[in-house]
Amino acid sequence: MRIDVVTIFPDYLAALDLSLVGKARRTGLLDLRVHDLRDWTTDRHRTVDDTPFGGGAGMVMRPDVWGRALDDLMGEPPVGGPDEVPAGAHLVVPTPSGEVFTQRHAERLAGADHLVVACGRYEGIDARVVEHYRAAGHPVSELSIGDYVLNGGEVAALVMVEAVGRLLPGVVGNPHSLVEESHGAAGLLEYPVYTKPPAWAGHDVPDVLLSGHHGRVERWRRDQALERTARRRPDMLAALEPAVLDRRDREVLAGLGWTVDADGVRRDDQV
Ligand code: JD8
Q1: Could you tell me the residue range of the domain that residue 9 belongs to?
Q2: Tens digit of pLDDT for each residue in 198-236?
Q3: Ligand 1 pocket check: which of 95, 99, 102, 105 to mutate, most ligand atoms within 8 Å of Cβ?
Q4: What's the pLDDT at 81?
């Protein structure tokens, strides 16, 4: 996969030289390129912003500068019908007004050949930029990493590139771990984890984990994942397909005040 990130603060993305994503770049599993938007300015002050039409506080990023940069990086719009896999680049624009980015988005973006991530600053990027590339037939995703306000798109780009990059084949050493993790296929939060020493500051590791009895360990972990999800993310539990819950799961959930039937998974006080 190729990912281009465009920003006026390229150093913000230096963290992507580290750890698994950094290794994926060095081993060729990921072709990640970071660009300075000012390289596409034409004036000696390298201007990327101007005052907002309609007035108001702050500055807006110019469409013409973004257009020159994205025209260079996006390549030709995808050809072929709506049901064909779009070949051209997928434009990703972090914005607080976007759809909230989830593991599902990460999985979908990980299926693309080429992503271009446009990091805005100031009050944002002139709205015609997204309009223009969408109209040209490129897939465009406006995504937010959460309901809080940042000063720009760079932090969100770090989040999205790591979440997508680690799903690429060969990046995470043991692909099995991708299955069990929170927000993974199971749709549950992950169970608590422990390592040596077995006793620490008066806290012991749960006996079942020292039992060597794999069946009991797996069951205990599943029960923990169900309890945690019920307590911390009841929305995720309610979104589960009943078919993924076995008889023991349903007993555990019943004990936590949840009903599972053909119609779904519901808290008893909402039956
Ligand atoms: C892109 C400019 C700053 C936002 C005026 C503060 C994502 N979850 C998220 N929160 N904030 C962002 C984000 C913020 C950005 C830009 C993403 C470009 N800003 C603006 C509007 C209010 N300033 C984000 N993803």
Answers
A1: 2-173
A2: 999 999 999 999 999 999 999 999 999 999 999 999 999
A3: 95
A4: 54
Residue nearest to atom 22 of ligand 1 (CA): 123
Is 191 labelled as part of a ligand binding site?
Answer: no
Would the annotation count 13 as a binding residue? no
- Tell the residue nearest (CA) to atom 15 of ligand 1: 152
The beta-carbon contacts of 53-62 under 8 Å, at least 24 apart in sequence, are: 56/123, 57/123, 58/122, 58/123, 59/122, 59/123, 60/122, 60/123, 60/124, 60/125, 60/126, 61/120, 61/121, 61/122, 61/124, 61/125, 61/126, 62/126
Whole-angstrom Cα distance, residue 146 to residue 7? 20
Atom of ligand 1 nearest to the CA of 156: 25
Q: Is residue 179 part of a domain?
A: no
Same domain for 37 and 155, yes or no, is yes
Among 69-83, 91-105, 182-196, 236-250, the range scoring the smallest mean pLDDT is 69-83
pLDDT in tens, 77-95: 766 555 555 557 999 999 9
